[in-house]
Amino acid sequence: MNAQKTILVVDDDPDLLEQVEMILASEGYNVVTANGHSEAEETILTVRPDLAVFDLMMEQMDSGFVLCHLVKKMYPGTPVILLTAVTATTGLDFKANTDEEKSWIKADVLIDKPARAEQLKSEVKRLLKE
To answer: Whole-structure pTM over 0.90, yes or no?
Structure first.
């Protein structure tokens, strides 16, 4: 159990936010949540997460990208997971496979929604090197 690790979870869907919070809290993490982009920006100023999980599309279509850039600028080395429904919504396979794509996306991992609990837990542990 890792009660000392803080994970910031941001999503504008309260049901998904609660689901991800429960999954990570059950693993012993200290989970801090924000209900969307604006609240997340305020939270990032006061909470230094060990890892962040952002929904890609919230108030703006690029909210997750913006928050990812903010966290990486303020807290270099902090891993970020982006949850996205782009593939399900548009049918486009949205991945960061090339170095160029990774350079502007800034996320360490992209996970398609709905995120499976085991996949999310596995990626969090891998990124936190546990």
So the answer is: no
